[in-house]
Amino acid sequence: MSSWVKGAKVGKENVRIRLARFGRAHSPVYNIVVSPKCKARDSLPIEVVGTYNPIAIPGPLGKKENKNVKEVELDIMRAKYWMGVGATPTEKVAWLFKKAGFLHEDWPKPNKFTQVVKKPVVNDIKYAEEERIQLYRHRD
Fold first, then answer.
1. How far apart are the first and last CA of the chain?
2. pLDDT tens digits for range 102-121
3. Is the CB of residue 21 less than 8 Å from the CB of residue 28?
4. What is the SS3 assignment for 30?
5. Contact 96, 52 (CB under 8 A)
6. Which band of pLDDT confidence, cut at 50, 70 and 90, is reported for residue 32?
7. How far is CA 1 from the centre of its chain?
8. What would you report as the CA-atom Rg of the chain, rounded to the nearest whole angstrom?
9. Dihedral sign for Cα atoms in the order 62, 64, 65, 68
10. Transmembrane ranges (predicted)?
């Protein structure tokens, strides 16, 4: 167990739910982990919440829709806990959570301060006429 887990406090904004890669070359498998924001991708996580296999597995042959399936295993109770504590998922993990039905499609809710504000219409610019100034002297 790493030293920061034992007694150190981790702030809400410093914890992320992200993917940590493992597996062989050209056949990746990812752990869905909870780890501090400043740590490396494959460093020791606080907790492993699930796994994700991005390589598609052929679907069952008996169905009309023969789609390839990507395997996702997720501990929803622990993911809910970490989201409740304030851990923020990365874009790919949020996409996985939405596909699993764990997050709403409109997550995160738009903040009222980040919404686009319409700028006021500016009237046409009026140019003042100036007298032409010679910047060079004629030789005599």
1. 90
2. 888 887 766 656 666 677 77
3. yes
4. strand
5. yes
6. very high
7. 27
8. 27
9. positive
10. none
